[in-house]
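Thread: "does anyone have the structure for this chain?"

Original post by V.I.:
We have the sequence but no experimental structure in hand. Need at least a predicted one for the grant figures.
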Amino acid sequence: KGIMGVLETEEGRAALKDWANQSFNFADESASFQERSIRAWRASIALLTLRGAGPKVAQQYAAESKYILLPQIENIKRIPSSQANKRFAYESAVAQGWKPPYPPNLWIRTFTTADDIKFVRVHVSKGKPQGSFLVREKEITHLGNDAEKIRVHLGLKDKPGFMSDVIVPKGTKMQVGRIGEQSNFGLLTNSGFQYELLQQIPKSCFQNTRPLQ
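Reply from O.Q.:
Generated one for you, tokens below.
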């Protein structure tokens, strides 16, 4: 059907936007994959305009493209997971059963946020949502509100009781990589993607706390 065939249906347009959005989770992909995704979506807008969809429709999709795909990160660098894991190789963590947070022999991406970006964080205590490890909400959406399933998927030791939104401010240093296996806590293989704050952010960034099941 080609790109125009995809754009002719609401389902196709939604799928294309979702595909482009997936490029944000690019820990195992090159940065050029994200760039190709952005170019493809913007090219589809141009094709839609050329097809004679009219200025109103073209303006609508241009607005959606700007909201979804304006680069949200910059200063992207690649580091080995062994380097990222060094900070967690302390005796007390090993004694508690923790393994390194990132899988061995993989690349981790460090970056700086170029805009405010929304993440979520699960936590045990209602009044203590702060912490450095975050995920995109879509990472755990398929688990519903099931705290035990979320615990295993994220490789956590304790079952979380709450989830909070985290609005990470523009200019924040972070890194993203796969969730490494935590066999002592039920995660027997590498899981999804986790994001780590490399600097502190204000407590006010942690908001909208709600209970898990």
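V.I.: this helps a lot. Strands lie at 73-80, 107-113, 117-123, 133-134, 162-168, 173-178, 193-197, 206-211.
O.Q.: and The chain has a mean pLDDT of 79.
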